[in-house]
# Entry
Amino acid sequence: MMLLKDFLLLSPWLLGAYAQNQGDGNITVAFFPSSEEATCKQDNIAKAASLTTNTIPSGFVCFNLTDLFTQPSDNGSQGVWKIPDDTPSQGVDYLLGNRDSYNADTNYTNVWYQQVNQTGDGDTNSGADGTWVFYTYAFADCVQNGGDAFDPKDYPWFETSCQTKDGGDCQQLPQPVKSFAIGPAASYNAGHGKCEVWAKLGAASILNGRTPALVAVAATMAAFFMV
# Structure
C-alpha cells in the first residue's frame, strides 16, 4: 500500500503539469473522521481525503470540504478571496487524493498536514518559516465566527505556517472542520513576528489575510454614509 509520503514524492511531478507558480516543495493537507481517534498516530494515511499543491497563492484561498471532495475531478484550481477589482491574482492549483473516501455526513476533526521546504541537499527544517499558511475553520466559507450562538472559544479556527518534520504533523481539533484555507506565509509570518503552529484563534492581532480588506471596506462605507 502506498504511504502518503510516497505519494508526496510524486506530487511535484503531477502538479507541475498545471501549476503556474511553483515554490520550494509543496503542502499537503488530509482529513480523518472523528471516529478514527488513533489516526494521528498512524504513519499510513494513504486512504485519507487530501489536497496537495505547490502553487503559492497571492492571497487567501478558501475551500469548503464538501464542495472540494465531492467534485468529479482529482485536480483543479481555486481563486483568491478578494474584493472584486482588476488586480491580477494567483490562486491555488491542486491535486486531490481519495475523494471517494470523503463522506459529507461524517465529522472530520483529525487533520494532518505537511509542508517541507527542501534545500538543495534534501534537508528539512522543522519549525522554520514555511511557504504557506494553513487555516482550518469550524464553519463553511472560512467564517471565523458562526454567530452569537457559537462561542469562539468552543468553535475556534486554527492557523499554521511553520515547516513540519518529514512525515508531517497531525492535530485533533475540538470541532469538525467544515472549511480550510491556504495563503502565502511570507507576509503572514512577518506580521506575526514568527511562524505559527496550530495557533488557536490566530493567536495574534493579525487574524488572517482577509482582515485588512474587510477593515478597508468598512472604513470606505462609513465615509460614504457620512458625506
User: Anything to note?
Assistant: Residues 112 and 170 are 4 Å apart (CA to CA). The two ends are 66 Å apart (CA to CA).
